[in-house]
Amino acid sequence: MQHNELIPRMRAGDQRALARAISIIETGGPPARALLAAAYPHAGAAHVVGVTGPPGAGKSTLVTALTQEWRRRGVSVGIVAVDPTSPFTGGAVLGDRIRMQVLGGDPGVFIRSMASRGRLGGLARATADAVVLLDTAGFQVVLIETVGAGQGEIDIARAAHTTLVVEIPGMGDDIQSIKAGMLEIADVFVVNKADRDGADNVLRQLKAMLHLGEHRPGAWEPPVLKAVAMRGEGSAEIVEAAERHRIHLHHSGQSAERARAAAERELSAAVQELALERVRGAPWEALVTRIAARARDPYGAALELLGESKS
Amino acid sequence: MQHNELIPRMRAGDQRALARAISIIETGGPPARALLAAAYPHAGAAHVVGVTGPPGAGKSTLVTALTQEWRRRGVSVGIVAVDPTSPFTGGAVLGDRIRMQVLGGDPGVFIRSMASRGRLGGLARATADAVVLLDTAGFQVVLIETVGAGQGEIDIARAAHTTLVVEIPGMGDDIQSIKAGMLEIADVFVVNKADRDGADNVLRQLKAMLHLGEHRPGAWEPPVLKAVAMRGEGSAEIVEAAERHRIHLHHSGQSAERARAAAERELSAAVQELALERVRGAPWEALVTRIAARARDPYGAALELLGESKS
After folding, report:
1. What stretches of chain A show up as alpha helix (H) in DSSP?
2. Rounded to the nearest 5 degrees, what angle is found at the Cα of A141, between the Cα atoms of A137 and A143?
3. Least CB–CB distance from B272: residue in A267, A272, A294
4. Taking 90 as the threshold, does the pLDDT of residue A26 lie above it?
5. DSSP-derived 3-state class of residue B85
6. Cβ pair A167, A189 in contact under 8 A
7. Among candidate residues A220, A236, A259, A256, the one with its CA nearest the CA of residue A135
8. A167 to chain B: closest CA residue
9. Is the dihedral of CA A192, A196, A198, A203 positive or negative?
10. A87 touches chain B (CB under 8 A)
């Protein structure tokens, strides 16, 4: 299959073409850029929904339940499951993914795990590009699942229109310490495993925490919803909240603002990737040797590579 | 205080000058680069030791205990404590840091928390630069404490010569799922809170896990050491293991390899930072608008900014 055939085939519903295209963008380099340049004008229609939360919150199960709910409503769903290649969560995440297998065989669903370490710009970059491809392929909702435990994952969440933050009962006092960062990124809170003891307590704490924040008139108030994802309970309410949030973004003008911020991030990343590729020529190795020997500083060397006159 | 006075003052032991210099590199931009270019030739002597592990493993307490041990041996210690600005751990980390206050008032110790979000290139970049400054200021050991829970923290760990991975009893089955990534980055394992039930079990599991890995002749075998950091127990053995590891790096030629890899990362980061600063001129906003409207793709726009002829 030629690269220039991939986009029309993806758009015609060929999942093998889509899988191939994502592999190309995971690898990066000129083929990835050519593909994204061709895809970009077709993208922009999907509702991108991030699902994040601590390890053990049942995110994969929730993603599965939400996908089933959207499918019942006739909406197609693309899923990007991000493995942060963390030494502390890697294995567990992989185990969870197995639960998503119930979604297999439905042409209205596409699932891809991302774990690329090789790509210049890292996982956040490859994930953002994969979202563009799923959007181009016509998926109406694109779900990004991440383990929310680091700046990288927050960067990934930022690529979403709507971010669901998942909590569970039994985190005890921790709930007090995590509020600041969560308030910034959560559009919808989900208390999963809500059949467990302490669910109402978590619910109450989250609501209290939200009321502490400054409330501007017309601003979105993140709902706090209960779910038992393993049995599909709460999925309808969460899907409806996500859709209300999307409408709110449009009406409030935030859609346009967010699109602009995303465009700026994409352009910055593209400039960095291209600049680095260009200077990896002959003097590169010699400069690295000199820097390692402390005979040169990295910024001085970078100026030399990029051409000092323009600085 | 002028910028060009900072390096000599730092090197003379002026901790205010050092604190000021770190603030400058946290902000980034041309002043940060000028400072690092001046510092770089003076750096390279410190032993950089990373301390990472899951939240709750007692890393700050261990860092405090190890620092006290090194001080007893007459070794000066600079500490960079990285707050990952995570919504899920932020608050807790801050609380731990308070324990380090026992180290205050000793001119042979310098502690700095890093939590900058603003800096281009992020926290890993600012942390690596802060390590260069502590090294320049003459600290013989530089400790980097991170919460090991994401790619960003692994990038930070990579800047260390010696990485200590801290575990605690009571993580249960999780120990099985975390081994792959840990084996890659750990030079020394520490089982902290070893007075708790299950410590011997964790110790045994870690050792078994290490024996599963491929062992090349002459390769470093990560020791697995017990500690009760709160009472200073185990600190001497850990400090000695870290120093043995450093000697191993020298004798095996890995010091030179790692210095080269670090130099390459530094140069890449510097190229990216400078390239981005240069193109943030007039056509930038117009291109962002066109990308947001899907009338342009980010890579095509980046090519235009960098000058297509050179691609």
Report:
1. 3-11, 15-27, 30-39, 59-72, 90-97, 122-136, 151-158, 174-177, 179-185, 199-212, 235-251, 254-279, 282-292, 298-306
2. 105
3. A272
4. no
5. coil
6. yes
7. A259
8. B88
9. positive
10. yes
Structure tokens at A182: 């969560």
- φ and ψ at A48, to 5 degrees? -95, 120
pLDDT band at B30 (very low <50, low <70, confident <90, very high): confident
In chain B, what are the domains? 41-252 (3.40.50.300), 269-310 (no CATH)
Mean pLDDT of A229-256: 95
Determine which of A25, A158, A257, A297 to mutate to test the interface with B (most B C-beta atoms within 10 Å): A297
Nearest CA to A154 among A251, A265, A239, A43?
A265
Above 90 in pLDDT, residue A127?
no
Angle in degrees, CA A192, A188, A57, rounded to 5: 25
Tell me whether A286 touches chain B (CB under 8 Å): no
Q: How far apart are CA B137 and CA B18, in angstroms?
A: 7
Round to whole Å and give the CA distance between B234 and B241: 11
Neighbours of B108 (CB within 10 A): 17
First and final CA of chain B: distance in angstroms? 43
- Angle made by CA atoms A253, A257, A260, in degrees to the nearest 5: 145
For position A241, what pLDDT does the model report?
98
Of A53, A266, A298, the CB nearest to B298: A266
Q: What is the pLDDT of residues A162-205, one digit of tens each?
A: 999 888 887 654 444 454 556 677 899 999 999 998 899 888 88
**Coil, helix or strand for B141?**
strand
Say if CB B257 and CB A229 are below 8 A apart: no
Contact indicator for A245, A187 with CB cutoff of 8 Å = yes
Please state, in angstroms and as integers, the Cα–Cα distance from residue B178 to each residue in A57, B54, B150, following that order: 17, 11, 13
| A-interface mutation test, from B33, B35, B151, B185, most A Cβ less than 10 A away | B151
Enter the DSSP assignment of B15. Answer: H
Measured CA to CA, the distance from residue B160 to residue B151 in angstroms comes to: 15
Closest approach of B281 to chain A, Cα-based (Å): 12
User: What b/e sequence results for B180-189 when a residue is b if at least 16 CB atoms lie within 10 Å of its CB, and e otherwise?
Assistant: ebbbebbbbb
Task: Write b or e for each residue in B114-131: b if 16 or more Cβ atoms lie within 10 A of its Cβ, otherwise e.
Answer: bebeebbbbbbbbbbbbb
* CA B23 – CA B114 distance, rounded (Å): 10
